[in-house]
Design goal:
Chain lengths: 375, 362
């Protein structure tokens, strides 16, 4: 753990002179590099392993879809990225390298400089995410004035600009959320997310609970803005078809782990993990034969007591011996295409030992943290 | 709408109820016709008056209404799955509720097996409730968390006083649970809802609906709150019940792709009217109304290699209080002509069971 910290600190651009700093940023392989991130929730019964070691990378200007069923940890993963976990949540281990800076180790104060200025978020359910007793315009001005040192008038002008950008009449800047329709509110949320020109926007189910047509409008808007503003985008969605249409890359999660990741073409046309295959098939495709596939039998595991080995093994039709005892590792089966399944090779003894040592270390760390808290 | 839809010859024959003052008695229901369609709706309207303040109601020249349903012509056959599709506020739920007589129509006629729904007496309604059931969207809130599965499913039997012994009650509950795919049913009887998963809960809701042996089940977004991986089994169950129990399902959804999977016919609604109706395959593969075309074009497809032309309509559904003149879709229609602003389109027969209401159609 401490070795990782030292490495991150050494790699942090803050330690370098300004000119070099800029060069280092360009050289960095990706905008966002998440490495083996683990975020757990503490309950009285123990630790819920909501996000249990996920890894993915995001290049500048790319859009990535984080998909999975409810309870698979996709929202936890997103909130962990910007350290907005609820009070009982904790990043246990792993790194979130944003432009070379490890966000997982950053202080609350340090994060406040990053949030909204560099990474912003469109929250789920625009109905509830906006403050009902404040004018929408004021809510957009707030982050602008907080981050960019400008006066109220200039901020208001910027807010109006943003309204125009997302397709709302700027005259409506003084309205309250209840005066707007659902789609309009979602647009206002997007305007808010763009307020400080962030480089990365995370959309947490930005179109769920909207009408089909409004959903299409919002997705089109997001696509347009991505192109215009050269944004990187992480789309969190349970709807794989939305991901197929809007993203370049996809990450499929199941029970807190990544089961498959790659380009959307690789995932949709060449899915290898049994779960991904079944999940994609579950979505009706009106351009293909009309048929009803069977559901995946069983339920997702209780993450308080995850099953040994692969989390999907109890529901998997191709489960074999090592699945129920050895945890699979993400393996690259073709360039950029990662699968976490024993069908593509069981990790050798050394890797297994390393993984179990890692788990033991995490457990010890958690136990120590609990003890420290108790005292 | 009504001009081209000819009522079937045998339908309105029984529209003369025997009771006093023209009310429909329970006996009429028992004698009701066994052939023909289950429901016949002609120019059905449901308008809700808008609550106004005292002063406004004094000054206002006319009372305003929400036109939830405005001229629905529809025949629903026995044992079919009819999907009602449209954006929120198009009246699909109101139509479902009107079929259940949870809402009283304010104009037009709605016949159930030839009997006018609006004229049902109290007793006849009670009889009718056994025949028409509903499944709600959210199985987490639709069932009582303090009751056992047995009590939940048995409740309709008790309320309607259709069972006379404990033994009979148990037998019927078990039968309903097994018909709903909870096997072996005895394992579930004395469990509580919190012990079940979302899919199993929805099955309990379905069991509660089928336990009385209904003709009609209105399913209002029954899988919207379920995970994709378990959705299909619920849909399959509904199709199986249609086939084995002969239940007519009204499947209300905003998701055309779900309707495509499950239904026999699709009715696309917009602002209180059916704009297009036909066999599922026909409507999805060969949509004729611009609204249907747009709805189908925006369905996300789980295949990144297929890039389609999306027809994205501007704005949102207008409010159903002050309706647009002429064709009510014209303000958003990408194919709008001048005439659309004045003339109301009628249903055009496009062969088979396929109808659409658009002035562009021949």
């Amino acid at each position: 753990m401490s070795a990782a910290t030292a490495k991150a600190k050494k790699g942090a651009p803050a330690a370098k002179p300004a000119a070099e700093k800029k060069a280092a940023r360009i050289e960095h392989p990706g905008l966002l590099d998440v490495r083996d991130l683990k975020a757990y929730f503490r309950l009285s019964a123990g630790w819920v392993k909501a996000v249990d070691g996920i890894s993915f990378t995001l290049e500048p200007g790319e859009s990535l879809g984080l998909a999975g069923e409810s309870g698979c940890g996709k929202t936890t993963a997103a909130t962990a990225l910007i350290k907005l976990l609820p009070e009982n949540g904790r990043i246990v281990s792993g790194e979130v390298l944003f432009d070379g800076i490890n966000l997982a180790k950053r202080t609350e104060f340090g994060m406040s400089k990053i949030r909204w200025k560099e990474i912003s978020m469109i929250f789920q359910g625009a109905m509830n995410a906006l403050n009902p007793v404040k004018e929408v315009g004021d809510q957009i001005i707030e982050p602008i004035r907080l981050h960019d040192n400008i006066g109220e008038k200039a901020a208001l002008a910027r807010a109006k600009e943003l309204f125009e950008l997302v397709g709302i009449n700027p005259k409506r800047i003084g309205e309250y959320p209840h005066q707007m329709s659902g789609g309009m509110r979602q647009r206002a949320m997007i305007a808010m997310a763009l307020a400080c020109n962030p480089r990365l926007v995370i959309g947490d189910e930005p179109t769920t609970a909207l009408d089909v047509m409004v959903q299409a409008q919002i997705l089109e808007l997001i696509e347009k803005l991505r192109e215009e503003l050269d944004l990187s985008f992480i789309l969190i969605s349970h709807d794989l078809s939305v991901m197929a249409e809007t993203c370049d890359k996809g990450v499929i999660m199941y029970a807190g782990r990544v089961v498959e990741s790659g380009s959307v073409e690789q995932i949709f046309n060449n899915a290898e993990h049994p779960y991904t295959r079944r999940l994609i098939k579950s979505f009706p495709n009106i351009h293909e034969k009309r048929e009803m596939v069977s559901s995946i039998p069983g339920d997702p595991p209780n993450l308080l007591y995850p099953p040994p080995g692969c989390n999907f093994s109890p529901r998997c039709e191709r489960c074999f011996e090592p699945c129920t005892s050895v945890e699979p590792q993400l393996t690259e089966i073709e360039p950029g295409h990662f699968v976490s399944c024993h069908l593509f090779g069981v990790p050798d003894q050394a890797t297994q030992d390393a993984a179990s040592a890692d788990v033991a270390a995490t457990d010890a760390h958690l136990a120590a943290a609990l003890e420290a808290e108790a005292q | 709408m009504s001009s081209t839809v000819t009522p079937p010859a045998d339908a309105p024959a029984a529209a003369a109820p025997s009771g006093k003052t023209g009310r429909v008695c329970p006996e009429d229901l028992q004698k009701a016709q066994t052939g023909g369609s289950l429901f016949d709706l002609h120019d059905l309207q449901v308008h809700f008056p808008i609550q106004q303040g005292f002063f406004k109601s004094m000054v206002a020249t006319q009372k305003k209404y929400v036109h939830a349903l405005d001229g629905i012509d529809l025949q629903i056959a026995r044992g079919e799955i009819l999907a009602l599709v449209g954006e929120s506020g198009c009246g699909k739920t109101t139509l479902g509720r009107t079929l259940l007589r949870l809402e009283k129509s304010t104009g037009g006629t709605a016949l159930y097996k030839g009997l006018p729904l609006n004229k049902f007496s109290e007793k006849a309604l009670r009889e009718y409730r056994k025949k028409a059931q509903i499944i709600f969207q959210d199985p987490y809130n639709a069932i009582n968390p303090k009751q056992t599965i047995f009590d939940i499913v048995a409740e309709p039997l008790l309320v309607n006083q259709v069972v006379h012994s404990e033994k009979e009650k148990e037998a019927r509950v078990i039968k309903a649970l097994e018909e709903s795919g909870l096997r072996p049913a005895r394992d579930y009887l004395f469990r509580y809802p919190h012990e079940l998963s979302g899919g199993q809960r929805q099955r309990v809701c379905i069991a509660g609906a089928v336990v009385l042996g209904p003709d009609l089940i209105v399913a209002d977004e029954p899988v919207a709150s379920l995970d994709v991986s378990i959705r299909n089994d619920i849909l399959k169950l509904m199709v199986a019940q249609k086939e084995t129990l002969g239940v007519t399902y009204i499947f209300i959804t905003h998701d055309l792709s779900l309707a495509w999977v499950i239904s026999d016919r699709i009715a696309v609604m917009y602002l209180g009217k059916i704009v297009e109706i036909g066999e599922t395959e026909e409507v999805v593969k060969n949509p004729r109304h611009p609204y249907t075309k747009a709805l189908i074009s925006v369905i996300p497809v789980p295949d990144p290699t297929k890039k389609r032309e999306r027809i994205i309509l501007k704005g949102e559904t207008p409010n159903p209080i002050d309706l647009p003149t002429g064709c009510r879709f014209h303000p958003r229609c990408p194919e709008c002509m001048d005439i659309c602003k004045e003339q109301t389109p009628t249903d055009i027969h496009l062969g088979g069971n396929h109808y659409a209401a658009c002035l562009r159609l021949p």
